[in-house]
Specification:
Elements (H helix, E strand, L loop, with lengths): L8 E9 L5 E10 L5 E8 L2 E6 L8 E2 L13 E8 L8 E9 L6 H9 L8 H9 L13 E3 L6 E3 L8 E10 L2 E11 L10 H9 L3 E3 L2 E3 L4 H7 L7 E12 L4 E12 L3 E3 H9 L4 H5 L4 H21 L8 E6 L5 E7 L3 H23 L6 E3 L5 H13 L12 H10 L6 H10 L5 E3 L23 H14 L13 H16 L14 H37 L5 E10 L2 E6 L5 E5 L8 E4 L4 E4 L5 E3 L3 E10 L4 E6 L4 H11 L13 H13 L12 H8 L5
Parallel strand pairs: 8-15, 9-16, 23-28
Antiparallel strand pairs: 1-2, 3-4, 3-6, 4-5, 6-7, 10-11, 11-14, 12-13, 14-15, 17-18, 19-20, 21-22, 21-27, 22-23, 24-25, 25-26, 27-28
Length: 706
């Protein structure tokens, strides 16, 4: 392993299996060694310059020759480029390529993350030049062939800190068939009008595939002139858009829909807080300021309730989870961490966007045109079995079938919501599901209970949405959209090649249907889906890394302080506790849980003490102390302030275990064990006689010691 680094592709040979049956191997050959720009701190130790990698997956320090440090100083964070790879008998050698600054500089965590996860953060010169050449506003020639919606009071509803507005909504009552219903308009920024297939901006956008959101900073998919200007549906200016125009029934079903390009004029930039206040009080100060728009908000609320009714009827999974928002000061330090409260305005926009996404998926499917669907498959057989065992162990009284439906998950969540362990059950239901991906093969969306679903509503920040817009435009024009021959990173294509090779090498079985070889066009869409899915994961990992860094830095100022929290995960090596006041998660290692042996119960997802029967499961409430913060490893360690005397005493009582003689019932087991050990080691009194035999020792132990 000394000759390889993280991300190297190797050929390995299995040499043995361990006690648990896991294969152990030996590296035979290094097949591929991608470029390794490594981020770390430059250190000067015993006359030798070296870089200690910030990413601990690189297991070795990088030696830097004296003349290769550039302008970097000891202790600074640098990017080092390898000049010599590691070998069996030598460390890797490199040169300083870029100096990022001091470790405590504001925004340093973001600079590290974008390089650590290879997030493209600088636009190419060709992309910037093309963005400069774009107009500042909608021109008369841009409006040709578009529906004029400038008189329709479309509004944007976003968070207070939003800068790019890619969706606007409007609703009015309408007759649907013979019954009542609504006409719902969802207008989405028409990015595809300005970002042409294969252009310099398109190449950069495809490479990024998504915008990356950090506290206080966004790395956009598109240049700022587009993302915050020309494409953003800013208030009281003309903007080009693609519209999903729907008729929704009283039952919340989309009766009919159509897509068309349009020109719009946003009548207001609203926030979720404002709209929620208007819906709660139509005579309040917020409603008075927006008097002319209040009836439209009420119509939107009515159609939302109808769509919600349809959501409940189809059994879409809806778990209540707490999302947090990090509020930083001007220097990038955390001031506080607060929960994001989802009000009716959030849910209203969410349901409107879901309806538009379903219509776009249906439109592409009906036209039999290839495109990228948002696919979320049901739980794997392995996860199904774990969930079944868990539900049985927790005496839930309900389980899932061999071919589970979203309705089953929702029914279990609803049936157990009043239980003390409801949060634990919801967490396990959520963890049993797979991650959603982009794919040209429509397998439906399990969580939302849709047969077909795609992403249409955020083309400013997601490349798959931009592709969906192009496909819809091609269908409207009775044409066929061809994916551009973009210079894609090799990883997605390598994955696709391996997947196809695995299919070819699989043992031949009698197929139920004649298998058709994938066309070149379909393979291109598969590669695009893999690329977009991988970059979505990369963006999530980079965002989580920055949040973890900030939280660790924040908790360094709170070392030794005590907080109450709840167990959010149990493992064989300890429990993870999330603090109530700060929403920060840390580990209580198993060695901190008391002086006894704990066993991990996988079925119940809990740690249980063998002697006392004390249990630490998801949802258990504890009081902990911040004991250690590892900024480089992004880890926070807690210790139990006390093992919860009442909790412990109750567990011992339930198991019928009495506390040791002379030890109060509320004394922790750990202290009791220490006292017993000290007593056992105490030397006998010096009487001048030989040490008593075992029998004598027993009888003497009954008498009080003088």
């Amino acid at each position: 392993m000394r000759a390889v680094l993280h991300r190297d592709r190797v050929r390995a040979r299995i040499v043995r299996h361990d006690r648990k049956g896991r294969p152990e191997g030996r590296v035979v050959e290094i097949v591929e060694r991608p470029p390794h720009p490594i981020i770390g701190r430059l250190l000067h130790e015993s006359g030798v310059w070296l870089v200690a990698p910030e990413d601990k997956r690189y297991g070795q320090d990088v030696l830097v020759p004296k003349g290769a440090t550039g302008l970097a100083k000891s202790g600074q964070v640098v990017v080092v480029e390898l000049t010599e790879p590691p070998s069996l008998y030598g460390q890797p050698v490199g040169r300083v390529k870029e100096v990022l600054g001091e470790v405590d500089d504001p925004g340093m965590e973001i600079e590290i993350a974008v390089r650590k996860y290879s997030v493209p953060h600088e636009f190419s010169e060709a992309c910037i030049a093309q963005a400069r050449s774009l107009p500042d506003k909608v021109r008369p020639q841009d409006k040709k062939g578009r529906v004029d919606l400038t008189d329709v009071p479309l509004v944007t509803i976003d968070g207070e800190d939003a800068r790019d507005f890619d969706d606007a909504v409007y609703c009015e009552p309408a007759k649907v068939g013979r019954g009542k219903g609504w006409r719902l308009l969802v207008a989405i920024a028409d990015v595809s009008h300005y970002v042409q297939t294969g252009s310099a901006i398109d190449v950069d956008a495809y490479e990024r595939a998504t915008s990356v959101y950090f506290p206080r900073r966004v790395i956009p998919m598109l240049p700022e002139k587009l993302s915050n200007g020309l494409c953003s549906l800013n208030p009281e200016v003309e903007r080009l858009c693609m519209v999903c125009d729907m008729l929704v029934t009283a039952a919340g079903d989309v009766h009919a829909y159509q897509f068309y390009p349009a020109v719009m004029w946003s009548h207001a930039r609203m926030t979720y807080t404002e709209v929620a206040a208007i819906l709660a009080n139509t005579r309040g100060p917020e409603a008075t300021r927006r008097k002319e728009l209040v009836p439209h908000f009420l119509n939107l609320h009515d159609v939302y309730r109808a769509l919600l009714k349809s959501r409940n009827a189809r059994g879409a999974v809806d778990f209540e989870t707490t999302e947090t928002q990090i509020i930083c000061d001007e220097n990038g330090r955390i001031e506080q961490i607060v929960p994001r409260v989802r009000n009716d305005a959030h849910k209203l926009i969410e349901e409107a966007m879901l309806a538009a996404n379903v219509c776009s998926a249906d439109y592409i499917q009906q036209a039999e045109h290839p495109g990228l669907f948002r696919v979320h498959e049901g739980p794997t057989p392995e996860k199904q079995e774990i969930l079944k065992q868990y539900l049985k162990a927790m005496a839930v009284g309900m389980t899932i079938s061999a071919d589970p439906t979203p309705m089953e998950f929702q029914q279990i969540a609803l049936a157990t919501k009043e239980r003390p362990d409801a949060q634990q059950i919801s967490t396990m239901l959520l963890r049993s599901m797979q991650q959603a991906i982009y794919s040209p093969h429509n397998s439906g969306h399990f969580g939302l209970a849709y047969e077909a679903y795609t992403h249409f509503t955020s083309p400013i920040r997601r490349y798959p949405d931009l592709l969906v817009h192009r496909v819809i435009k091609a269908i409207l024009a009775k044409e066929r959209y061809q994916l551009p021959a973009l210079p894609t990173p090799g990883e997605a294509h390598a994955k696709l090649a391996r997947r196809l090779a695995a299919r070819a090498a699989a043992p031949t079985q009698k197929p139920k249907k004649k298998q058709v070889a994938p066309t070149r066009e379909l393979m291109a869409w598969e590669a695009a889906g893999l690329h977009c899915s991988a970059n979505e994961r990369r963006a999530d990992e980079a965002s989580r890394d920055v949040e973890a860094w900030l939280k660790c830095k924040y908790m360094r100022d709170h070392l030794g302080e005590e907080y109450s929290g709840v167990v959010t995960a149990a493992t064989s090596f300890g429990i993870f506790v999330t603090l109530d006041a700060m929403y920060v998660e840390g580990l209580v290692h198993i060695t901190e849980l008391g002086g006894e042996y704990f066993k991990f119960d996988e079925a119940r997802q809990e740690l249980r003490g063998e002697r006392t029967g004390i249990r630490y499961a998801i949802g258990s409430r504890l009081r902990v102390q911040v004991s250690r913060v590892d900024l480089d490893g992004r880890k926070i360690d807690f210790r139990l302030v006390r093992e919860g005397e009442e909790f412990m005493a109750r567990a011992m009582k339930d198991k019928g275990v009495a506390p040791p003689e002379g030890v109060p019932a509320k004394t922790s087991v750990k202290r009791a064990a220490k006292k017993a050990a000290a007593k056992a080691k105490r030397p006998p009194a010096d009487t001048g006689k030989a040490a008593p035999r075992k029998a004598a020792a027993k009888s003497k132990a009954r008498k009080p010691r003088r």
